[in-house]
Design goal:
Pfam families: Ribonuc_L-PSP. This is RidA family protein. It comes from Nocardioides fonticola. The chain has a single domain, classed as 2-Layer Sandwich (60s Ribosomal Protein L30, Chain: A). Helix content is 28%, strand content 28%. It has three helices and six strands. Strand 2 and strand 3 form a beta hairpin. Helix 2 packs parallel to helix 3. It starts with 5 loop residues before the first strand and ends with a strand.
């Protein structure tokens, strides 16, 4: 794939069309996955912060896979949380996915997210292998 080729992945979020964004974009070997919230296809949100974190990573990693990547390709993650007291449990879920990969990572406490049911939203960047 040439560096000029741009690919997009969708997760079916209703915001993708109205706001004008993609769940993930691949340009050359780089994949950027947009802020990903813990929403199920039916619009439901589990109130448990650990379940929310798992759902976020599942959505993001499916988008990454759609563009040819794997968790091993992830080089940076960002987690936005609304309650510092939930940082440890949300961070432990990050460890379920990345304990052996150990990407650069940031966790930020924010005043709020788009939907008040969301306890966490995540992003990731990946660099795919050459070839």
């Amino acid at each position: 794939m040439s560096a000029e080729t741009r690919q997009h992945a969708s997760s079916g979020s209703p915001y993708e069309q109205t706001i004008g964004f993609s769940r993930a974009v691949r340009l050359g070997r780089h994949v950027a996955v947009s802020g990903t919230a813990p929403v199920w296809p039916d619009g439901e949100v589990d109130p448990d912060p650990a379940a929310q974190a798992r759902r976020c990573w599942e959505i993001a990693l499916v988008a990454l896979a759609h563009l040819g990547g794997t968790p091993d390709d992830v080089v940076r993650t960002r987690q936005y949380i609304v309650d510092a007291a939930e940082g440890e449990v949300i961070g432990a879920v990050h460890g379920e996915f990345f304990a052996d990969i150990r990407p650069a990572s940031t966790m930020v406490v924010v005043a709020g997210l788009l939907d008040p049911r969301w306890r966490v939203e995540i992003e990731l960047d990946a660099i795919l292998p050459e070839g």
